[in-house]
Amino acid sequence: MRSSALRLLLPLLAVSLHAEVKVLKNFTLIDGTGRAPAANSAMIIDAGRITWVGPAAQLKAPAGAETVDLAGKFVMPGIINLHGHLGAVVDLQQSADNLTEANVEKNLKTYASYGVTTVLSMGTDKDLVIGMRDKQRAGGRPGETRIYTAGKGFIFTGGYGGLAGVNVGVSTPVDVSKQLDSLASQKVDMVKLWMDDHLGEQKKMPYEIGKAIIDGAHQRNLPVSAHIFYLADAKKLVEYGVNGLAHSVRDKPVDQELIDSMKKHGTWQLAGTLSREGSMFVYAQTPPFASDPFFTRGVSQNVIRTLKSPEYQKTQAADPHFAHYNEFLETAKKNLKKLVDGGVKYGFGTDSGPPGRFPGYLEHWEMELMVDAGLTPSQVIQAATKNSAEFLKAKDLGTLETSKWADLIVLEKNPLENIKNTRTINAVYIAGNKIK
Length: 436
Hints:
By secondary structure, the protein is α/β, with parallel strands linked by helices. It is 37% helix and 19% strand.
């Protein structure tokens, strides 16, 4: 009886096992390592991981595996965004009240549909985001863009940064220690601090507080990323051992002193956030992408109407610093290129999430601007995949190699020939799950 029942169960078990095995074949592989693209490649995915990748001629597909023929397509790793903000915006309105699980989930689905398979949310997260991350890592919420989070980042009391209703200012080393204890207990992936005065309009975090944050975080084995604008602040925080700069320096050209210090201390140019700078002035008229289907599919009709509204455009142009925003973008581009050429480690990030910085679309615009800055498409793809995974110490992400998670984008055209071809998305997979 027991033997008979087992014989009946075996076919069901086989179906269950093979249902998790996928074979992708006949595509050109861009694996994220910087190696030359490999035509006529194939890949076996089992339980969400790559178990084999190589020439299609050598493929030995497991019996019963789902097979997808991707002839003529290009496959690259999923995009890793090292600077995003989750869930606080509905259309063009930002509020802590918007930061609900449903809105975070909506952001994650939007990111995924654009091939952004991992996002580091940088310091404006309620505890619910920590809970969503923990559930993901326990095996729940499959097929969703992966969350990394800095929890609640550090702002100086009465100063610049953060999200009202979420971030609480610190003014003494005692305040810093208490907040770091809380972040350590939540096992955040990053500690974030803001050091900026918004072009002289707000109080800036004192250096001694910044140093206390960096020292205290490192004592708790937590890496630190800093929002900066000024060269002088970047130099000081790098001297203190900050792990990453979350933006390009934008007030003046970087110099060899900063380059040498970043290399000495192992500080990354974590993100250029060039698209963030572009978003500061592009809406003073109808932006060129307002009618682009690749953009419009990710936003509401209300957003599109607003972006085309003369009243909204007039408000954008009335910003007292508006005349300087294009200068800041050009400075950021030149500084990113100089740091990369100087041998500083670099990742990829956009500051997407706040109003006008649209999740998913912004990451592809960022890639375009990085190429405009002088990086090659191959360098940009490595920044957004392999390099960013390295910074996160995410050994299972970033490249399409054996044992890694199958987080990947299927493209119609070759992004190494034109970086805008990252927008020709045919399909996205996260842990081997095809995103709808």
